Amino acid sequence: MFITALIVGILTAQPIQQARDTRTPQTDQTVTVARGARLTVNNFAGEVNIKAWDRDQLRVQARHGARAKVNVRQTANAVVISSDTNGAVSVDYEINAPAWMPIKVEGTYNFITVEGTQSDISGETVRGDVVIKGGNGIIVAKSIQGAVSVEGARGRITVSSVNEGARVSASSGDVTAETTNGSISLTKMNSPNVEATTVNGNVAYDGTVADNGRYRFATHNGTITATIPAEANATFNVRTYNGEFVTNLNLAGPPRSEARRGRRLSYTLGSGSAEMEMESFGGSIRIQRSGSTSTGSKDKEN
User: Fold this and answer.
1) Per-residue tens of pLDDT for the chain, all 302 residues
2) What is the CA radius of gyration of the chain?
3) Cα–Cα distance between 273 and 215 in angstroms, integer?
4) Residue 64 · residue 92 · CB < 8 Å
5) CA-closest candidate to residue 276, choices 249, 241, 255
6) Which helix (H) or strand (E) holds 141?
7) Model pTM?
């Protein structure tokens, strides 16, 4: 219990983290890597910051206690970085990696940041935030006690948290986002397939709607807001039990006042080729055109 409390205290004390960042690295090692190699970082506790550069080299700088030892193990197709802490609490990494290099980071008490790489990226931790900027391929950001964020990625994107929010922005491809106690924000999106679910939080989507695309947004206690182009072609299946349904788009369908007590209503915009499922138990559902600031009144019929 004492060690756990000590780890949590260190990871949540920002002034201590900032002071540690100014120290001279105890480990500073550079290795040449062949194209096609993958990077795996296993770190029990600390910070892992990875930035891309244009060299076919991997530079590993680490700040840690005198009793800790950082291991950089290289094979023909992989580089694995790990540490023997020998009672030390944490290891903080600053790593420069080739932009083409696939990256996987995992641990327990970690704050993970990966920026600028253009391949597969996976960051998973139990306690701590995960921030990914860039990436192309399979992108994964997962935390239990921490916020997760992906920006500027392309490919198949998965973000999940239990007790914090999840955010994806300026990204394209298939997206799966889930959390239990937190909101989900998807902005500047270009995706043909999105699923976003939470229990206690809002769900917001702002982006394009692809013809024949599939979109599913669900929350138990929260509002769902979809901001989409007025020229989109979509069929909206809407259900709310204790909220209202409002929109400022010209949707074809039944009067919005009928959206109450869990009745499932269907509305069409344009040809209706995309499918958008929207369900909230305790919150409202809002569909608004891109660039607007208000969804209008629930009393104004279609």
Assistant:
1) 434 444 444 444 443 344 445 668 788 999 999 999 999 999 999 999 999 999 999 999 999 888 888 999 999 899 999 988 766 679 999 999 999 999 999 999 999 999 999 999 999 999 999 999 999 999 999 999 999 999 999 999 999 999 999 999 999 999 999 999 999 999 999 999 999 999 999 999 999 999 999 999 999 999 999 999 999 999 999 999 888 899 999 999 888 766 666 788 999 999 999 999 999 988 999 999 998 765 554 434 33
2) 22
3) 12
4) yes
5) 249
6) strand 136-145
7) 0.88
